[in-house]
Amino acid sequence: MSDFHNAAKGGLSTGQLEAVLRQVGAERYHNRHPFHHRMMSGSLSKGEMQAWALNRYCYQAVIPRKDATILARAEDPAFRAEWRKRIEDHDGEDGWSGGIARWLHLATSLGLDAEAVKSERLALPATRFAVGAYLSFCGSRTLLEAVASSLTELFSPVIIGERVPAMLAKYDYVTEDTLAYFNKRPEQASRDSDFALTYVLTHADTPERQQAVIDALVLKCDILWAMLDALQHAYGEGNIPPGAFRPEERR
To answer: What is the pTM of this model?
Structure first.
């Protein structure tokens, strides 16, 4: 894999910067992770699938909080008007009719208890640390870096396009209704990533800012990768930490 640490040294054209950002995704996005490949091959146990859904809920639940943090920092009304669509997508009009609710439906369709999932108390410590790091990053770094960290959405239609057909084909307990969360995500992700990419390419106008947005995207990919590392270590290799979800206790 490439070393992106000095990718913007000397400055990049807009086209070059976009190419580097897309290369980050091609090399570092978590569709390359072994846990994802095991999911695609049909080799995950149902307990591993439940653990994935339960832990991923922590990430889904923090997304509108992350976006609200970004929204509060933006001075441009036009930016805020566009960015708030992300919160509406995940929370819905009433707080429980959007993407988070659909992810909860995915988790309960796999046999998990809704309140246990929402409490996040059974999530892996590494999951909670990773999700907290993402929220902290978006609140403590520049607005430009926070926006750049969202550019993993450039690559999410790819992983959804791999995941959904494979899950339906390989796991007889997974149905189209189970995976209803993914119905709207490719369109939403494409809309959001187009806006974020345009913003980043417009505002990353110095070598220092260009490197900062590259580093932000690398960090976000690392966070998503670390979450799957934790799942593989805990459930694929049998190293479940105290207090975390244990499939055998849920049968």
So the answer is: 0.95
